[in-house]
Amino acid sequence: MLAVNLLAPAGLLLAGANAGHAGDAKAGAAKAMMCQACHGLDGLSKAPDSPNIAGQIEPYLVAQLQAFKTGVRKNDAMSAVTPALSDKDIEDLAAYFSAIEISIGKLPER
Length: 110
What we know:
The protein is an all-alpha fold.
């Protein structure tokens, strides 16, 4: 019974995770050119200090982009790019990168 009570709020959080994020992945793809130098158009990092963003969940990407834009999160490259992004740009970029399917290869057996 305790497990069910603990899982119910988590389910509500997950169900609402996409609420308010109605980004357009197609529009995001057109805007992603500015991201390609570090994150690649495929969301797979091209620079050793830039994270892979392909397949990340949309609300997470929106939150991180907003944090860079407002200065809550600091990074020289992101702080130069995000101030020019509108909320719609951020939602579209998040929709695009979250829609990219990634696969993980099997590690070689030892």
